[in-house]
Amino acid sequence: MPSSLEIQLRNDSSSSEVYAYITGISLQARAGSRVLLKSNGKDLYFPSEPPENMSPLTEDVAIPLGPPGTTKTVHIPQMAGGRIWFSRDGKLTFLLNKGGPALVEPSVLNPADPNAGVDFAFAEFTLNNDQLFANISCVDFVPRLPVALTLQTAGGQVQHVSGMPADGLDRVCEGLRAQAKKDHRPWDKLVVQRPGSQAAIRALNPTHGNAVGASFDGYYEPLVEEVWSRYHEKKGGILMRVNTQAAPGTLEGRVLANGGELVVGGEAFKKPTTADILGCNSGPFETGASAKRNAIIPRLAAGFLRSCIVNCEHQPSGPETYYKRDPTNHYARIVHEVNLDGKGYAFAYDDVQPDGGEDQSGKVNAGDPKVFIVSVGGNHAYAGNRMP
Predict the structure, then answer these.
(1) How does strand 63-64 pair with strand 18-26?
(2) What is the dihedral of CA 152, 139, 104, 119, to 10 degrees?
(3) Which of 95, 110, 134, 338 is least surrounded by CB atoms within 10 angstroms?
(4) What digits encode the pLDDT tens for the residues 251-277?
(5) For the CA atoms of the chain, what is the radius of gyration?
């Protein structure tokens, strides 16, 4: 595995004012420290402790990509928790807080954030001794600026994540508005407009709905009741089977006779709320010390969010069973429909799939990366594993 890697950043937008920013945690020099690439795309910037919170960076970290169709090559060392940020027609503002220092990243939830009106997106990555792992993500929001990934390995294999076309956000917004008209839930309120404009700049994941007055309280509770009824041992319900895809193997599950808990492989789960299901990390889905429970949680949480847990007693089930009934996460459904290859993290456990199943998560990974291309803008987005 290389100790560093070149990344080709390709401007596939129609704008000449596109910038990239690369942030992460260093795994080599000053290991464990926050690190950013400088504007030349190769030198490293390790921020020092600022004099006060919300202090500006002391280095220029905006990497200009150049005109449409051009490629900028940057060089990164091994990093954990990395992000490749992009902005169009305006630069991003990163700030520093004391205690680390801590990097204050752009927020889509704070209307007072200096980046609230900036068209931005990001891809996530980790480069370590084992592999390069990268993915596109809509766990927080769908950006107006689409991102695509292409990875060629030293062995010649090509992995490609298409992302959305240039008008992908508009399609997502149309889908959310149509769903709101259909079920009278606030899907349309997830659409965020650019300040002072009617144009959408992003669409939020319903996990963050309360930030924009889109409450989904009580939404998934009817489905939870169906699950409890279907797998209730006293009512003659059927067995649930959860393949942990780990050492515990496939575990059986039933709702106890008293109706209080769903027990899978000896691990008890209380009824999740809508917030638990959308976030996948609270209530019964909070991970802990038990490796077995931690292996059950992603499969169980994904089954609830995709609404396939009622009709499919074997979890995880295949993509053909996802989002086929209400209530379900229509944001996730629409995200996958608009992505040209159907791939992209729409929630935290979107990488859950049956053994040998089709990946939904929008990731590329390899222990022998040779060529890594990150394209932004969506003008030449395509489906299929080939080099652009």
Answers:
(1) antiparallel
(2) 80
(3) 110
(4) 999 999 887 899 999 999 999 999 999
(5) 22
Interacting residues of 283 by C-beta distance below 8 A, sequence separation 6+: 270, 272, 273, 275, 276
Could you read off the pLDDT of 72-88 as tens digits, one per residue? 999 999 999 999 999 99
**Helices (H) then strands (E): counts for the chain:** 5, 24
pTM over 0.90: yes
Report the C-alpha gap between 140 and 175 in whole angstroms. 17
Which residue has 């920013």 as its token pair? 21
Model confidence pLDDT, tens digit, residues 304-342: 999 999 999 999 999 999 999 999 999 999 999 999 999
Separation of alpha carbons 7 and 10, rounded Å: 9
Tokens representing 264 are 């899978």
Which two three-digit tokens encode residue 374? Answer: 């990150």
| Nearest-10 crossing angle of helices 330-338, 168-183 | 150
Are 128 and 360 a contacting pair, CB within 8 Å? no
Contact between 5 and 20 under an 8 Å Cβ cutoff? The reply is no
CA distance readout (Å), 54 to 94, 96, 110, 231: 9, 5, 14, 51
pLDDT, position 218: 98
Which amino acid, one-letter code, is at 306? Answer: R
375 three-class SS: strand
Binning the chain into helix, strand and coil, the percentages to the nearest 5 are: 20, 30, 50
**Euclidean distance between CA atoms 109 and 71, whole angstroms:** 31
Question: What phi-psi label fits residue 89: left (phi over 0), alpha (psi between -120 and 50 degrees) or beta?
Answer: left
Instruction: Please give the Cα distance from 268 to 263 (Å, whole number).
Output: 4
Residue given tokens 């080709």 in the structure block: 8
Distance from CA of residue 52 to its chain's centroid? 32
3-state secondary structure of 210: helix
Other CB atoms within 10 Å distance of the CB of residue 52: 8
> Looking at residue 3, what is its pLDDT?
84
Number of Cβ within 10 Å of residue 196's Cβ equals: 7
Sole residue written with tokens 């290859």:
341
